[in-house]
Amino acid sequence: MSATNNFLIQKHDTPHPHYDLYLQIGEELKSWIIPNNIPSVRKKIKIAIESEPAQHAISDAKSKKVIEDAYGKGKTKLWDQGEFDIVTQWKTKLILKAQGKELNGTYLLHIPNWGRWTKKRLWTLEKIR
């Protein structure tokens, strides 16, 4: 069974620029900090650090708010938004098919073995199709 959900990506201009990825799955909001660019081609793997979701992120998507997270304080800018379908979902793995302007295609978010034992839950984000 496949459900349609929303995603939002903000570019966060801090001393350590990064992207904030928010996935709204039903009533639940999950988020990750992606220190480098979002992968746009297959087999490019990027680190995604699980973070506490900012509840205002979805509602304030279009405003250029100054927010602070683990990477510092800075303005946010809407980078992409859209819908996605969940292809596979487990505790440590999520395959989603995104329909956005920039995030478009099938992506794998998962916790590799080495990511399970770190202080922060480290995931990887990879475009697979």
Q: Secondary-structure blueprint of this entry?
A:
Layout: E1 4-13, E2 18-25, E3 28-34, E4 45-51, E5 66-69, E6 72-89, E7 93-100, E8 104-110, E9 122-127
Antiparallel strand pairs: 1-2, 1-6, 2-3, 3-4, 4-9, 5-6, 6-7, 7-8, 8-9
Structure in a nutshell:
The protein has 129 residues and is mainly β. The protein is 0% helix and 58% strand. The two termini are 20 Å apart.
Low-confidence stretches: none
**Biggest sheet architecture:** 8 strands, antiparallel, barrel
* Terminal Cα span: 20 Å
Count of helical regions:
0
Radius of gyration: 14 Å
Secondary structure: helix percent: under 10%
Across the major sheet, the strand order is: 1-2-3-4-9-8-7-6
Shape descriptor: globular
User: What structural class do helix, strand and pairing data support?
Assistant: mainly beta
What is the average per-residue confidence, as pLDDT, rounded to a whole number?
83
Task: Give me the count of strands.
Answer: 9
The number of domains: 1
Strand content: over 45%
- What is the H/E order? EEEEEEEEE
Features:
single chain; 129 residues; 8-stranded antiparallel β-barrel
Q: Could you characterize what this model shows?
A:
The protein contains no helices and nine strands. With 129 residues, the protein is mainly beta. The protein has one domain. It has an eight-stranded antiparallel beta barrel. Strand 5 and strand 6 form a beta hairpin. The radius of gyration is 14 Å and the shape is globular. The two termini are 20 Å apart.
